[in-house]
Amino acid sequence: MTARARRTYRLGLHTTADDPTRYEPREMHDAWVDRDPLRRMQLHLMSRGVVDRPALDRIEEEVKEELRVAWDEAQQEPAPDPRFYFAQVDGEPSERLALQLRRFGR
Questions:
Q1: pLDDT tens for residues 77-93?
Q2: Quick one: DSSP state of residue 4?
Q3: Do 10 and 18 meet the contact criterion of CB atoms below 8 Å apart?
Q4: Mind listing the pLDDT tens digit for each residue in 1-49?
Q5: What is this structure's pTM?
Q6: Cα-Cα-Cα-Cα dihedral of 53, 55, 58, 62, to 10°?
Q7: CB contact set of 8 (below 8 Å; sequence gap of 6+)
Q8: Which of 15, 45, 81, 87 has a beta carbon 3.0–4.6 Å from 50's, enabling a disulfide?
């Protein structure tokens, strides 16, 4: 990583089954809250008078609604066949993957 490169930190959970308190201290999360790029951009835009808190709240609600609609639409789609995705990884499945696919087929 170059001296000019920057890193960021995922403030949210990796998955709904994730519990980051099991593998990192709360202080690490807290140290990154003020460095979150989304939060920093919001504060920057507000400080420049480009947007205010009520506008940001409206945008957030609009995005949540768009996501809700997209989720509802996606739930109407048939479930994909996982074998299709496995076939995209390797020309020939490994022994281990072939075993998993046979188990999945049962």
A1: 998 887 787 778 777 87
A2: T
A3: no
A4: 455 656 888 888 888 888 888 888 889 888 888 889 899 999 999 999 9
A5: 0.59
A6: -130
A7: 32, 35, 36, 37
A8: 45
